[in-house]
Each structure stands twice: as structure tokens, then as C-alpha cells.
Design goal:
This protein is an alpha+beta fold. Helices cover about 30% and strands about 30% of the residues. The strands form two sheets. The chain has a four-stranded antiparallel sheet, sandwiched between helices. The two termini are about 20 Å apart. The structure holds coenzyme A (COA).
Amino acid sequence: MSKAPPVNIRRLGPDDASAFRVLRLRGLTDHPDAFTSTAKDWDLPLEAYIERIEAGHVIGAFEPASGELLGHVFLPTHLATGIKTRHKCEVWSVYVVPEARGRGIAEAMLTHVIALARSLGFSWLKLQVGEHNAPARQTYERLGFEVYGREEDYLRLPDGRSINELMMQLRL
Ligand SMILES: CC(C)(COP(=O)(O)OP(=O)(O)OC[C@H]1O[C@@H](n2cnc3c(N)ncnc32)[C@H](O)[C@@H]1OP(=O)(O)O)[C@@H](O)C(=O)NCCC(=O)NCCS
């Protein structure tokens, strides 16, 4: 894609916990079909957010002028510990606020995450996406992720909807 990175991308630190909490709860509340966790799961005190920021890599996109946090993605490297499976890492929770979508922010965050995972020695990245989620799928496919599996009825939402999930992978 020819769009220049429109934002600053960096790892979150403890000082970002408050903005992260607001963003995370907004994403989970507005998009129950896009995430396995619920807003209730993440209705936690600030200390819990600091712990999560410190545990793995939470990458954020920041508006250069205002410093506002516009998006996040997680690379939970601390969970990739199995001696026979630690060459693979998952990507979780890609989210961009609605007012900043279509600027290439998800692509910029994921490009950062791919480079980070490569520099940490991982050979593969894996993620999951709702089959219906065209904007997310388009972004992942453009970056080279390929579908390797499909799970039917993966999520059942409170409103009765059933979500089929695609598994995607990228060889680094
Ligand atoms: C998915 C999401 C992260 C994308 O963020 P973004 O910063 O707008 O993404 P980008 O600007 O990098 O790219 C979006 C792409 O999707 C495309 N797109 C947007 N709406 C689309 C639609 N309805 N159908 C197909 N493609 C669509 C855009 O055209 C763009 O592709 P292009 O650059 O080739 O034109 C954002 O929409 C979001 O947070 N959604 C809600 C949460 C979510 O679904 N997260 C993913 C969980 S797996």
C-alpha cells in the first residue's frame, strides 16, 4: 500500500495504561463480534492494565499532534513458551477507533508487529478473524497472511448471532 505511516507506532508503557483502558473497553463494547473477550472481562482496575502492558507487547498507534491513542494490537510473546511451539506467536486484538479508520493505521501497526516478531526470532505469526470481517481480512491478506482453517460457530453473541472464524498465518 502506498499510504505513508500516518501515526507514531510504539510499545505502550505504564503511563499509557489509562488511555489503553479507555480504548480497550471501547473496542470490546462496540465490536462484540470481533473479539473473544468481553468488556466485562476487561472491566479491571488500572493496575491490571499495567500488568498486561508489562507482560507482553501491546503496540499502540498515536496521533502525532495530540498524542491521542488511536489503535492497539497485542503480541503476547510471554505466552509463546512451549519448547516445541515457541517459534510461533499469535497476534491479538487489532483495533482502530472508527474516526481514524481507512488511514492505514491497522496496516502500520501490523507492519511494526511483523518486524518486531521477526527481530525476536519467531518464524510464524498466527491470528484469527471473523469470516464476515472484510476490512480486517483485507488488511491481513495484503500483509501476506493466508487462511489455513475455518471454525464454524466459534462465537455466540448475546444477540443470537453466530460467528464463523478464520485462522490465518504468516511465515516470517
Ligand atoms: C479492522 C480494522 C482494525 C482496520 O483498521 P484500519 O486502520 O481502518 O485499516 P487500514 O486503513 O489499514 O485498512 C483497511 C482496509 O479495509 C478496507 N475496507 C474497509 N471497509 C471495507 C469493507 N466493508 N469491505 C472490504 N474492505 C474494506 C479498506 O479499503 C482498507 O483497504 P485498502 O487500503 O486496500 O483500501 C478496523 O476496522 C477496526 O478496528 N475494526 C473493528 C475491530 C476489528 O474488527 N478488529 C479486527 C479483529 S480480527
